[in-house]
Records
---
Amino acid sequence: MVGRIPSDSQLSTSQFNLVGRSVVTLDDITASQISYLLRKASFISEHLPEVSHAAAGKILATLFYEPSTRTRLSFETAMLRLGGHVIGFSSAQNASVSKGESISDTLKTVSNYADVVAIRHPKEGAALVASKAASVPVINAGDGGHMHPTQTLADLATLQSRFGRITDLTVGLCGDLTFGRTVHSLIETLCRFGHVKFVLVSPKELTMPQYVLDRINASDSCSYEEVTDLTAVIGDLDVLYMTRVQKERFFNEDDYLRLRDTYILDADKLRLAKPTMAVLHPLPRVNEIATEVDDDPRAAYFEQVKNGMLMRMALMSSVVGAPLPGFADDSDENVEVHA
Amino acid sequence: MMEVTSIAEGIIIDHVPAGTALKVLSYLHIDPAKSTIALIMNTTSHRYGCKDIIKIQNETDIDLDVLGLVAPHATVDVVKNAQIVEKQKPRLPRHVTNVISCANPRCVTSSERDLDQLFHLSNADTGEYRCDYCDEAAKL
């Protein structure tokens, strides 16, 4: 095996240096590094032509053991827009797992082909297994109902672009708060920056798990309230994060059907909200946001899609050590960490 | 036959949660069929209301990390020549490997071969452990 020779940038001791790092959860990177990625994504959005060859020669492997067209296309587009290449599979039926190969063996194999791996798997903790087995950085693209860190990065980038900050906000999270991994991850990450009030809107069957509430309680500057009525609180919110009740997370279809239609955001409810509120959703939606909301300037969920791609570009260029022309890696400009 | 009230050599594990003595023995890998053991179950405790007590003859070395996991409030008396010569407290280990298994059916440990069962101490105040892989709380 031929060892990889780090470039000058890879040898950097910058606090923002992410070269070679796997990101299974956002706990794997510091709050300063998250701020750095937000700044990098903002730079990329303004300089797409300039960065279009930044990762030339690099290969991304997308190992998707369950279908997720949106996330897979986002990762693949992100690498292609950096000038790199993409290999991989889009379902377990197309992979060696159908022959009984373990995650670890697949990752040990793919590490010989690719410079970075994005893995999506229905089992919780699969990305951790992958990162331990791989010799290249592994990015968790969703492991069951557990973690989806790049979705959270997309959410943060959307807050940053809408409000110019990710603190001092009242953030409502609505729908499936029990199985909704995106909301768990967003809360835990926002708590690291502090100064956020969370309003948790869900039916009693789908409330926030205690360990997430414990995380909020552990923050000096964050707080939460749990409610069941969206219309009663929507006027207080800076952000309304809607979630889908996910059929695949239920063992019992009757429970799914009963809870699916609990909250639907439509124009009538939106009239009660602040004119500056931002509506976020990890997509895909089923019926929890009426299509009439799409044309409202408060609808930010398609911006999230673009921000997701930009953040994946920022993250992948960082972990493979691909410097972006014109981007000052070591600058701490715009980095604000409050807690 | 050993008298329940005293042992000459061995250990006494006191303040075991009521009704869990057999489970504690199992986690400590002490086989009741091969050891001289006295179990006192569901007896009165001034501190906890009800408790179990385990007396093990000729055994002075138990895994305090494992005991901390399954009975964090237990106390261990080491007995020699019918005298208590040492008192030990179980530790709350930061990590435990292959002691308990994750009960979450969605956890990768339920399907991936040859994975160690890894748990970490998530709350030292409550003695709560969570799976390293899926963050599910440990169920003993």
Note: Helices of chain B lie at 21-27, 64-70.
---
Amino acid sequence: MNRDDIYAMTQKRLRKELKQLEKSDDDTIYLRPIKVGELLRWNALLRGPDGSPYAGGIYGISVNVDSTYPMSPPTIKFLTKIFHPNVNYNTGDICLDILKKEWSPAWSLISACRAVLSLMDDPEASSPLNCDAGNLIRAGDMTAFNAMARMYNVENAREFRFPPKPKPKAEQPQATKKTT
Amino acid sequence: MSEFLPDPTGPFVSDLFSFPAHLLESQNYATSSGHYVAQLNLLSQTYSGTRTVMGDGSCFYRSFLYGLIMQLADEGNEDERVRIEEYIKGSLATLTSQGYEEMIMEGFQEELLDLLSQIPPSRTSDEINLHNILIHPNGPSQMSTWYCRPLCSSYIKSNPETFKPVLLIDYPSIDSYCKSQIEPSSVESEEISIQAIVSAFGVKVNVEYLDGHDGEKVMRHVFGEGRIEIDMLYRPGHYDLLYRK
């Protein structure tokens, strides 16, 4: 055994994840490796959740892993600038427990993306990386918070488009959505 | 209680050292105000060896798996080996039925089955080789060690009546307990998870509590029942393996 073996385990797992993604018809997250055949660097597009101030926007995030994945979490950052208490506006860094000490290898890249999406829907004002956003929510001024977040949404999150869906083959069985 | 720190960088499991000489040398027990030396002397009536285990949050699971696999190589434990292998083979279906993703879990199950398949027919011939497989940083033991965690969750979920009364005091649901207190690789095991893992495997674990409180006795906690017995030393916050005289 040598250094490459853990990488082989990582590759094996990531190949499985990619295969599953290629079969999925999730229209809220589009997650793929940046370069075909290179499985350590991924990007994803997230559709801003309806009912949140990010609705109508499409947010790019980078999802990077190293050869210790899935024992350690991916590093996820926003590429699109977003006004959110748990995201650093300038660097895109995200404060999310499952990407740090609560990570478990039972999570996958897509379930980590789903967790980011639910963080957009449900901000956690007590651990802010963006103090302005956190302060507005903690002061209970949701009108101001939503207005700011929506303004940045319109300004920054209109650049990306979801790739067109492949034409559905006749009568595909309904895919059951799994939440991990 | 963290004045005696485990090593977070060393090998997964150390070579066999003399007990308690090794611990007296590597930790500051001699100069401590607690009754550690007296307790170590008491324990030395029963135990003569120790293996120290990496302190990265998985020391209990690592000690457990190491102790188990080594004993499965003993002559006379073939039945146990077959039994454990059958249990691991069936575990994926149980996990999947409990909502774990098959695609993710099977990778870990394969590693543990691989590890079990590498147990030599007799430990006497190949103990060092097996030890080296178990401590290899890129070998199957890392993923196998983690797989003990969902097995632990799975046992709790299959036996909710046993665990609910204790768990629901502090956690909203069994699922949230498993997700936050068992499955993350950095979370130490505690009595509930130890109880679950020994029951899941059908193995007995004896834990000697080196707490420095009383120089005339050492508390021993016994978990589970089974033909295989694994002895461990608990210093607050950390588990190591013990070997009898």
Note: The radius of gyration of chain B is 18 Å.
